[in-house]
Amino acid sequence: MRYDFITIIKLVAATFLPVVLSVALYLAEKKTRFGKVQYWKRQTIIGVLFGGLAVLATEFGISVEGAILNVRNAAPLTAGLLFGAPSGIIAGVIGGVYRFIATYWGAGEFSQVACTIGCILAGLFGAGCRKFMFDDKKPSWAYGLAIGGTTEVFHMLLVFLTNMDDVYGAYKVVALCALPMIICNAVSVMLSLLLVALIGKERIKKHFKSKQISQVFQFFLMICVVVAFSGTMIFTLFLQTKIAYANADKLLELNLEDVKNDLEKSLESGGSVDDEIKRAVQNRHIGQSGGIIVCNEQGIIIYDNGGHVGESIYTLKNTEDVKAHPDARFTAIIGETESYCMFSVMEGYYLIATIPVSEAMFSRGIAVSILAFMEVIVFAALFAHVYFLLKKLIVDNIHKINGSLAQITDGNLNVQVNVRENEEFASLSDDINATVDTLKHYIAEAESRIDRELEFARQIQHSALPSVFPPYPDRKDFDIFASMDAAKEVGGDFYDFWLVDSSRFAFLVADVSGKGIPGALFMMRAKTLIKDLAESGLSVAEAFTEANKELCENNEAEMFVTAWMGMLDTQTGILEYVNAGHNPPLVRHKNGEFEYLRTRPNFILAGMDRTKYKKYELTLEKGDEIFVYTDGVTEAADTDNKLYGENRLKTVLSSSCGAAEDLCRTVRADIDQFVKGAEQSDDITMLCVKLNPVEEEEKISVIPDQSSIETVADFLSATLEKWETPVKLANKAKIAVDEIYSNVVYYSGATTAEIILTEKGERLEIRFEDNGKPYDPTTAKEPDITLSAEEREIGGLGIFMVKKMAAEIDYKYWNGKNVLVIGFVSK
Amino acid sequence: MKIKKELENNVLVLALEGRLDTVTAPELEREIIDLSGVRDLVIDMKNLEYISSAGLRVILKAQKTMNTQGSMKLKNVGESIMEVFEITGFSDILTIE
Q: Does B88 reach chain A within 8 Å, measured CB to CB?
């Protein structure tokens, strides 16, 4: 045995050092704050520690028969594979550089370059494998074994390559070191990976149902390569053995022949046989350490370079038959060296030519070992290359396509699959894109069909809502406007109104719980039912009670309706109303503010079939207004999801005046301003009813001369007195007429003028029409009213006063006439 | 418009009744065209309905005259007329009781 017990213990210890360090660092990363240290700092620390391990390996090499064994390369490899590329490279450089300079204080000079390069490359190799082969993850232990072994084989090849001028020496070192160092380094790397995986409770072996493509390729590649390489190895071994035998035979034969010739020549010139034989063989070397042994007939050695003179030739340990034939090769132990021998009988002496087996077989050994190393390297390269090619050409592209497909499956049909690295994938990409395009086309077609149908549905639904305004042009006693803006194509909101008889007028607003087609269908049913029941002479509450019963039947979809319905007697102003869970409407009395009509609502329609609906009553005066709406108004949301709200609705309504349509349009415009372009999420429905005030009108036509001023003033006084206009309002009107009309008389040059007075509730309107030169008093320059008495001017003050006192003032030049309308309200 | 006139110890009291507008303003203007010897002018507006810019012009003229020879004040100014004075800034330059 070349290795004693102590050596083996040392080797095992050297093998386990990187394993222990790996486990310790792994635990530190997992369990302590070390794991939170910055990445580069951590990599540097790990790199330095493993580099230190490589230094230790160099310092404490294990000496076996003159060669130094060590487990140096496992450290940088493990660092690179287990902890990350940077740490591997750092450890490799530290180990390599130390090995290089360590030569100056005792490390072997012979393998200085090989070990330095080997160590640096081990770090790079581990880093590269982790980075490019394993996607920066820890590889499994089997890869560790293979990578560790391959790295060490490469190390051995480097020993040959860097010592080409001393091949024999290199071979000697490699023959001794190769096996233990390859095994120890490979096992060390493997154990590190295995233990860390075990500690981390990671699955050591992944159980794929089917193999990866690269594994299939690698398996067949391995079989082919192993068969081919084994064949080559056996053939080379056989051939090299034969050549070595032939060479040894030739060498021994030629030397014996030369000695024979020399001896014959020297004997012819006379001399003793004994001396001449000695002289003939004396300086003869066969190969480097072979020679010729001479013995006499009794077998006693009389000459030998190895110093065995006097001993019996038979004490030489034969490995083959001692009774060898002359001129035939046999094997014997000469001294302690196994050698090939050949003998020849000459002048009664035996001449035995010897050459050590190791020397004869040297070329065979070096050829076979280099071949074996090369094969390992080539196989590893092929293995990695197949892995890379498959990964790059197929696996990565499949992942890319899968990524795109996942996006498409998630609903983004605009994703284009675009893998064009090779023809097959390009064609696959095109096919997928074409399929998706076709699919998109079909979806678009289906969508447009649904859109068309929804559009029809919307039209039908809208045609079911009364939409011609004013609906009763001959009714001056009340004003109605309603609108419904659906959020989707068809909405769940609806409104309706109709004349029950000559004085009673019914109106309702409702919101169905669902939108889209189902909501619209339910809405149509509810609308028809309520109208039919209300028209059949039932009160609003009875109509709701009955409609609710009907809607509750067969309501599998569990939809419901909130609704508000009123019936207004336009003569008495009595409004009967019923509320089924609907938003409270707003009412404005006598030009005051809008207030919410908060009476307790009943339960929703289609909710519970036994709900009894209660009728409420309210009296509206002439000029009063009621505004009914759905929650789409108050719950209109802006881009920050802030709601429009009841307060804003109340404020906006209170600050606006005009016809029912104006109120609805003002609210709608305010909602649009509020939501700032956010998408409408619910139907917006509004309905406004206004009990019109009685309207009165008086007018006077005059020729505008100075005397007419008093005529007009008297007409105004008389009219206002007749209408019982409040004094304050009347005085304002009188001032306005004096100012405007005196202007017309003195400055316009008009030949005719007309003054029309209109009273509508609390509102008084004065309309001036004259055919004078165009003059817009609303644009007149305003006087400075802060000056002292001495600086004051009266010009422009009249118009200024009128503008200040009027609620509105409007001028237009129309049909050759100045038309000025001034409105007043009593407040 | 009716104007009641009382002069006592250099104090002239003018009581106006009706409206003071384009038509009637010249009447008042005639009354105040000669204020010589008047130290204090008092205009009583108790029965005045309203006043327009033509009336304001005459009031301003009287105020300017009285600024040079004595004082002028208005009394019994009703709500409507006060509103006109305020709108036009006349309330700042008149003495209103």
A: yes
Q: Which residue out of B1, B47, B50, B81 would a mutagenesis test of the A interface target, given it has the greatest number of A Cβ atoms within 10 Å?
A: B50
Tens digit of each residue's pLDDT (9 = 90 or more) over A193-202 = 888 888 877 5
B53–A797 C-beta distance less than 8 A:
yes
Mean pLDDT to the nearest integer, B67-73: 89
Q: Is A657 within 8 Å of A688 (Cβ atoms)?
A: no
Q: Under an 8 A CB cutoff, do B80 and A728 touch?
A: yes
Query: Number of structural domains, chain A?
Result: 5
Structural domain boundaries enclosing A337: 240-364
As to burial, measured by CB atoms within 10 angstroms (0-12 exposed, 13-18 middle, 19+ buried), residue A572 is: exposed
- For residue A790, the one-letter residue type is E
| Residue A108 pLDDT greater than 80, yes or no | no
pLDDT of A565 over the 90 cut: yes
Q: Is the dihedral of CA A642, A644, A646, A652 positive or negative?
A: positive
What are the structural domain ranges in chain B? 2-92
Specify the pLDDT at position A1. 39
- The reply to whether A344 and A488 lie within a common domain is no
Q: pLDDT, tens digit, for every residue of A165-186?
A: 888 888 888 888 888 889 999 9
What residues pair up with A479 in beta bridges, in sequence order? A690
Alpha-carbon distance B43 to nearest alpha carbon in chain A (angstroms): 17
Closest partner CB to B52 (pick from A728, A786, A798) = A798
Each residue of A632-653: pLDDT tens digit? 899 888 888 889 999 999 999 9
Contact B23/A727, CB-based, under 8 Å? no
Residues 6+ apart with CB under 8 A from A169: A110, A163
Tell me if chain A has a CB within 8 Å of the CB of B50: yes
Q: What does the mean pLDDT of chain A come to? A: 85
Helices A39-59 and A85-102, axial angle in degrees (round to 10)? 30
* Statement: residue A350 has pLDDT above 90: no
pLDDT at residue A826 tops 80: no
Best CA proximity match to A10, nearest among A61, A82, A79: A61
HEC string of A585-613 equals CEEECCCCCEEECCCCCECCECCCCCCCC
Q: What is the CATH number of domain B2-92?
A: 3.30.750.24
Checking phi first, is residue A493 left (phi over 0); if not, alpha (psi -120 to 50) or beta? Answer: beta
ipTM: 0.92
Please give the span between the terminal C-alpha atoms of chain A, in angstroms, as a whole number. 124
Q: Are residues A487 and A626 in the same domain?
A: yes
* Distances from the Cα of A827 to the Cα of A255, A461, A763, B95, angstroms: 145, 44, 10, 28
Sign of torsion over alpha carbons A432, A437, A438, A442: positive
Residues of B in contact with A794 (CB under 8 A): 53, 56-57, 60
CB-hemisphere CA count at 13 Å for A591?
Answer: 10
What pLDDT score does A202 carry? 56
> Are A278 and A152 found together in one domain?
no
If you measure CA to CA, which chain A residue comes closest to B21? Answer: A738
Tens-place pLDDT, residues A216-261? 777 888 888 888 888 888 898 899 899 988 988 898 888 888 888 8
Give B2 to chain A, closest Cα distance, Å: 15
Beta pairing partners, A485 = A684
Closest residue in B to A786 (Cα) is B89
What is the Cα–Cα distance from A445 to A286, expressed in whole angstroms?
96
Q: How far is CA A575 from CA A240, A339, A477, in A?
A: 121, 133, 15
Q: Is the pLDDT of residue A94 over 90?
A: yes
